[in-house]
Amino acid sequence: MKNKAALKISGIYFIIGFIWILFSDKLTELFSDDRQTVIHLQTYKGWFFVFATAALIYILIRDEILRKNKIEIELKQAKQKAEESDRLKTAFLSNMSHEIRTPLNGILGFSSLLEDDYYSPSEKSEFIQQIHQNGNDLMVLINDIIDISKIQENQLSIHLVEFDLHALLDSLYEHFNHVYFIAHQSQVRFILEKGSGSPQFKIVSDPDRLKQVLANLINNAIHYTRSGFIKYGYKKNESSIDFFVEDSGMGIKRENTKAIFERFYQPNHPYSNNVKGFGLGLPISKGLVDLLGGTLQLHSEYGKGSCFFFSLPLMAQKRAGMHN
């Protein structure tokens, strides 16, 4: 126990005792002039003083012990949090180093092959394509690392503007339909569902971050869907917009539903396509949805498919260019 607490208890005990001794005898004499009665009253007075001071000391010591225990618990929790943070940072840096080296080795390796006259122009053209692909992968990874770092440090800003949600969803459809479904002759049906039949549907949010979230979720669905469908879109409610990305893939095991939101987590899945990923899409999406005012949730049945969904508040119309 700290000296300050001991001095406080001693001081209170001294003051109460001094006041009690100074005035209690006079109070007992007011009740009776009989000496025997006064002696009995003083005995009761002494027992009362012992009981009262003991109760007071118990309360003071108990409160001090509770306060001390609370501080110790908080310090222990802070220590555990700091140790966990250090562990996560170490694991993060280790994984990041590995993930960066993969595309970088590809760039350096294919670049060195371009200097070799042994390879034909057509082969060198393929090397150049591989360099471009690895360069794009490296750029995506660096951007994801910057985003996840900003999210962890609460430094990522959200810019609210008024925009046409249908135009954003259409651009996503054109991109994925051309880059993946048509280019790979995929048998997966790619479906866009709009919750409004109007040509335009203007909302207030951050279009870039919302598009990033939906793109990450669609990429994730592509990674684990070999047949059936991938469906995305929104439903409009009175006070919110419910976004979703649903697929008929193999789903996620119940024990993995929390781990998939951890950085660099990539479960071994027997039916996953050869789609590159770094395990940052879902953690970034979860952080972005939180910043946008929603909560990213998951419903999945292993062997049947998954559905990621979140709701954003349907804000009043505001002028484009508004910043949060």
Structure description:
The chain has 324 residues and is an alpha+beta fold. The protein has six helices and seven strands; from the N terminus they run αααβαββαββαββ. The protein has helices spanning 3-31, 35-114, 121-152, 165-182, 207-223, 281-292, and strands spanning 161-164, 189-193, 202-205, 229-236, 240-247, 297-301, 305-313. Helix 1 packs antiparallel against helix 2 (35-114), helix 3 packs across helix 6 (281-292) and helix 4 (165-182) runs parallel beside helix 5. The longest helix has 80 residues, at 35-114.
Keywords:
single chain, 324 residues, alpha+beta, 5-stranded mixed beta sheet, two-stranded antiparallel sheet, 7 strands, 13% strand, disordered C terminus
Q: How many helices does DSSP assign?
A: 6
Q: Tell me about the biggest sheet?
A: 5 strands, mixed
The fraction of residues in strands falls at 5-15%
Number of strands: 7
* SSE string, helices as H and strands as E: HHHEHEEHEEHEE
- The strands making up the biggest β-sheet line up spatially as 2-4-5-7-6
Mean pLDDT: 80
Structural class: alpha+beta
**Tertiary shape:** elongated
